[in-house]
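Sample entry (144 residues):
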Amino acid sequence: MSDITIYHNPKCGTSRNTLALIRNSGAEPRVVHYLETPPSRPELQALIAATAAPVRELMRAKEAVYKELDLDQPKWSDDELIDAMLAHPILINRPIVVTPMGTRLCRPSELVLDLLPQPQLAAFAKEDGEAVIDAQGRRHGLRP
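Predicted structure, serialized as tokens:
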């Protein structure tokens, strides 16, 4: 069993790129399709706490249901925002990656590189062609 978990939406390009970067390090993560299998309240609360980010930062404000529920108003408590995320998992921002090195919302996808215990094995470019890893396994644009 992998010690890396990704909360993944296969329809999301950032999530797909993040998963590919994890695999480019030689790891095969546990993939949680959170729209099909949403986290429980304790799991979601633990993920949020582990990221050390405010609840709102882990919400997808661009989703129609966010606007429909008027969630941008400051009147909502963190518990109420979590209730909305549990009732509408599409509101959970993605991808969230958990490794022994930490937990993070990986937007942009390259943020996952700080969480991976193993180096990248090969060159990597995002789906849009943007180079991320060079042929020596280093972050693109960085010198040794």
